[in-house]
UniProtKB/TrEMBL annotation:
Gene of this entry: rfaE1
Protein name: D-glycero-beta-D-manno-heptose-7-phosphate kinase
Species of provenance: Trinickia fusca
Signal peptide: none
Pfam family, any one: PfkB
A GO cellular component entry from the record: cytosol
GO MF term set: heptose 7-phosphate kinase activity; heptose-1-phosphate adenylyltransferase activity; phosphotransferase activity, alcohol group as acceptor
Length: 340
C-alpha cells in the first residue's frame, strides 16, 4: 500500500490511491461518454518516429559496427502528436496545433493523425524539414537513433499563435508539449491567454528555463528535468522545500513529479505532497511514457475528475504503456480493465 512521503507534518495530505491486491480497485471508472465530451487541445513540437527493424548477422568490414539488414519499416507519431494520439485513444476529442514541413514526413504525420482521429490544426512551413527520429532496431533492441530537425520560422509561429486564439474557446483543457524544437516559442503568451479564459493549462517541460511556463496550472517533469531546474535534493524534505519555492516563484498551481520505478509525487496548490507508487508491471520501453501520463491527465481533467483521481489513472496508464515497444497508446478498455 502507498505510504506518505517523509515531509514536514503540515505538508502531508492524503496519499494518492495506488496498487493493492487488486490494482484496479483504487481508481474510479469513468463512463465512455464522459471522456468523449472532454475537449483537449495539444500544442507543441511534433515529430515522426520512424523505426527500421532488421537482423544483425555480421560486423561491418569498414568499421567495428553491426550491419543491419532492414526488413521492416514503421512510422509512428512522436512528440506532441503522440500526446494528442494518446488523448484520442482514450476517447476524448483531441486537437493538435503544431508546425510541420511540406515534405514527405510532414505528409506522413498528416496521414497518421487522420488514422488516429486527431483534429488537425497544422501550420505548414515549406522551408522546414519535418523533425524525424529514426531508430534502428534488431531483435527488439535499439542499436541507433538518428535525428533530423530544424527550428520553425518566426512567421509561421506567429500564425500558430493567432490560430491558438481562435481554438481556445473550443477546448476544455490546454496541453503544452515542449520538446525544445521551437514550436512553443510563444508558450508564455499562450498560457496567459488560456488562464485568462479560465482554461487549465498542463505543461510537459523541457530545459532549465521554466520562467516561460509561468502561471501554468500543472507541470509534469521527470526527475532529470526537475533536477536541471532546482538542483539535486538531499531528502524528501529538501525536495518538498525546493518544489514549493519553485511553484511559488513561477505561480504554478501544482507539480507532478514522475519518478519512474518510484511512482509519482503530486505537489498541490494546497501545499500537500501526495505520492503513489508505480504499478508493478514489466518495463519493456519507457519512451513516450511521459506523453501518456500528461495526455491521460488532460483527458480526465477535461472529463471533470479531480486532480487526485486524474493522477491515479495517469499512473495506471503509465504502468501499461511501458510494457509496449516505442511510442504507444493506452485505450479505454486497457485503462479500465479489472476496475470495479
Amino acid at each position: 500500500m502507498p505510504q506518505p512521503m517523509n515531509v514536514p507534518d503540515a505538508a502531508v495530505g492524503s496519499v494518492l490511491r495506488g496498487p493493492s491486491a487488486n490494482p484496479g480497485a483504487d481508481v474510479p471508472v469513468v463512463p465512455r461518454e464522459r471522456l468523449a465530451a472532454a475537449r483537449v487541445l495539444v500544442v507543441g513540437d511534433v515529430m515522426l518516429d520512424r523505426y527500421w527493424f532488421g537482423d544483425v548477422n555480421r560486423i561491418s568490414p569498414e568499421a567495428p559496427v553491426p550491419v543491419v539488414h532492414v526488413q521492416r519499416q514503421e512510422d509512428r507519431l512522436g512528440g506532441a502528436a503522440n500526446v494528442a494520439r494518446n488523448a484520442a485513444a482514450l476517447g476524448a476529442q483531441a486537437g493538435l496545433l503544431c508546425v510541420v514541413g511540406g515534405d514527405e514526413p510532414g505528409e506522413r504525420i498528416v496521414e497518421l493523425l487522420q488514422d488516429s482521429g486527431v483534429a488537425q490544426h497544422l501550420e505548414r512551413d515549406p522551408e522546414l524539414p519535418t523533425t524525424i527520429k529514426l531508430r534502428v532496431l534488431s531483435r527488439q533492441q535499439q542499436l541507433l537513433r538518428v535525428d533530423f530537425e530544424k527550428t520553425p520560422a518566426h512567421e509561421v509561429l506567429l500564425a500558430g499563435l493567432a490560430r491558438f486564439d481562435a481554438l481556445l474557446a473550443e477546448h476544455d483543457v490546454i496541453l503544452m508539449s515542449d520538446y525544445a524544437k521551437g514550436g512553443l516559442t510563444h508558450v508564455t503568451r499562450m498560457i496567459e491567454k488560456a488562464r485568462a479564459a479560465g482554461k487549465p493549462v498542463l505543461v510537459d517541460p523541457k530545459g532549465d528555463d521554466w520562467e516561460r511556463y509561468r502561471g501554468a496550472t500543472l507541470i509534469t517533469p521527470n526527475r532529470a528535468e526537475l533536477r536541471e531546474v532546482v538542483g539535486q535534493w538531499k531528502s524528501e524534505e529538501d525536495l518538498f522545500a525546493r518544489v514549493s519555492a519553485l511553484r511559488a516563484s513561477l505561480e504554478i498551481d501544482s507539480l507532478l513529479l514522475t519518478r519512474s520505478e518510484e511512482g509519482m509525487t503530486l505537489f498541490t496548490a494546497d501545499g500537500e505532497a501526495l505520492h503513489t507508487p508505480a504499478l508493478a508491471r514489466e518495463v519493456y520501453d519507457v519512451s513516450g511514457a511521459g506523453d501518456t501520463v500528461i495526455a491521460t491527465l488532460a483527458v480526465m481533467l477535461g472529463a471533470r475528475l479531480s486532480l487526485v483521481d486524474a493522477v491515479a489513472l495517469a499512473n495506471r496508464a503509465a504502468g501499461i504503456v511501458v510494457g509496449k515497444l516505442g511510442t504507444a497508446t493506452v485505450d479505454y478498455d486497457e485503462l479500465f480493465s479489472g476496475v470495479r
